[in-house]
Amino acid sequence: MVRHYSITCDSDLAKEVDALAREYDLTTQEVLQQLIEVGLEEIDPGK
User: Fold this and answer.
1) Which residue range forms the structural domain that includes residue 27?
2) Residue 24 CB burial class (10 angstroms; 0-12, 13-18, ≥19)
3) Per the domain annotation, does 6 fall within a domain?
4) Tens-place pLDDT, residues 3-25
5) Does 33 fall in a domain?
6) Based on C-alpha coordinates, what's the Rg of the chain?
7) Is residue 1 part of a domain?
8) How many Cβ atoms are within 10 Å of 31's Cβ, its own excluded?
9) H or E element: which one contains 1?
10) Which of 3, 10, 30, 39 could form a disulfide with 26 if both were Cys (CB 3.0 to 4.6 A apart)?
């Protein structure tokens, strides 16, 4: 089952996400998904 989430961030953070998306030729959604996955792995490395 797919869930949709919405986030709000300040312009500095949005610029960083956009820059990563351009640098790696990804969409902003793909960048955000990867950042969330990496963050969750940091919290629980066994997953």
Assistant:
1) 11-43
2) exposed
3) no
4) 999 999 999 999 999 999 999 99
5) yes
6) 12
7) no
8) 19
9) none
10) 30
